[in-house]
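[job 4417] fold queue: 2 targets
>>> target A
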Amino acid sequence: MKKSEVKIGETYRVKVSGNIANVRITGESPYGGWEATNTVTKKKVRIKSAQRLRGLATTKKAAAVPTGGQAGKTAPEKAKAETPQVTSAVKTTATEPKPQKKPVRKDGTMSGLDAAAKVLAEAGEPLNCKTIVERALAKGYWKTGGKTPSATVYAAIIREIAKKGDASRFAKADRGKFTLKA
């Protein structure tokens, strides 16, 4: 909308806090824009520019009904629409994480951590990161163009140990040396 089209006392559709709401313009703001009142929550809001206004609210009924696809429904219908329906005997919640697949690398190699785990499994003894990286690169398990790949692998192993704790694949054997957990 344009600033010249806005009239005090009219009800407009406006985006407030990420939602479309109906507001009645009550007057001009001394800081610019307009003072308005949300018709549903009765909270005062400031409309800074006419660009936030989406147009006139069509009817008084539409001004009193909150948005979200519930317009024209009775209270029991709204409650039924908002209540999730359980169709199976096992109830699942939205908080359960989905099992994630490891992404397939474009060059066909494995990640630095997976390569380190494989090298340590083959070695059967504690190794430092420089040796782990040399063996992983020599056998083609891992490819990197980095300047300090041993530092990268060291940091990744330490991060996995810190994050996963006892569930980590790696264990610190000695200063700068790692082994696989049994």
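>>> target B
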Amino acid sequence: MKSLFGFLILACGLSMAQDGAKPAATNVPGAQYPLVYPDRRVTFQLKAPDANKVQVHLGQTFDMTKAEDGTWSVTTSPLVVGFHYYSLVIDGVEVNDPASQTFFGSDHQSSGIEIPEPGVDYYDVKDVPHGQVRQQRYFSTVTNAWRRCFIYTPPDYDSNPTKKYPVLYAQHGWGEDEYSWVVQGHVDQIMDNLIAAKKAKPMIVVMENHLTALKPGEPRLQLGGGRGRGGTRPDFTNYGATYTEMMLKDLIPMVEKNYRALTGRENRAMAGLSMGGLQTFQTTLQHLDQFAYIGGFSPGLPAQAAFDKIYTDAAGFNKQMKLLWIGTGTVERDSNPNILRLHEDLDKHGIKHVYFESPGTAHEWLTWRRDMADFAPRLFQ
């Protein structure tokens, strides 16, 4: 019986190999499942002999089937390429998959899976010189607390000790954190590859958590909108004010003191995705003397008054700003055309800008990786 069981396991492994299926790159080391097929189907598996019902929730819900040995499994329909959060639901309780790495998103740790995009390698680890992602702790006088940010330094940072670099401040989205641009976004790999190809200038990238920049006693922002977390939408007239204050008084001075960063607005860019895009607009449009490059990746939009301020002097804005960049995925554009409307409004008022659409993607990390790959080469030229 044991030899027959071993034969079946071997045969199953050979079948999967013949199908070209591979363990997901986001699995914990040694885990064979989730298993990704070349046609983008995925097989999930879980050993839970006492469970009565197990599902995979990945945008849609897939019911798993129980085998005699208590192993549950399901093979999905083809999934969209890119990175996806997912969870298992065991007898009505949502849990993370023990075979998956976890990623901080939607304000909690979640399983995630990467579906490879054929022929695309701009965010892969390649045989090129690599920069470093450094963890930096510092004390904020504005929030009266110790804070943490992650800082990417380019490949020649340590080997060229006299060189100084411009700085991009990259913001994450709602429910994510200062590590998201590294773990989900692969920003260090994107930058390594762009710099190696001489498509982008070497730069420092600073990643902080704008959702925790709170003063003592200030309530933490929670969004509604069907995420199951409750709360209310922010007051767009003052959203992010604490972070802006903290950034200008604490974060930027810390970076320019401890890293070989070029100073002045012409050497400073800020960009963010989703709520981080809203934070970017709320910070930069009120402080044009501090930033010459602005990027909104599927950005939340502030109150109209923030843009009316620049519409009244389009010529002055165009002369002052080196780059205003906005982007959206075509799938999210069709369901939420606000960013397209902003592009049209900017055109109407004569504001020079770049508008980028990521084909076939929604409000997701593949959109924002593509955004970064288009945005970064335009900086500090």
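[job 4417] complete. Note on B: The chain has two domains: 19-115, 132-378.
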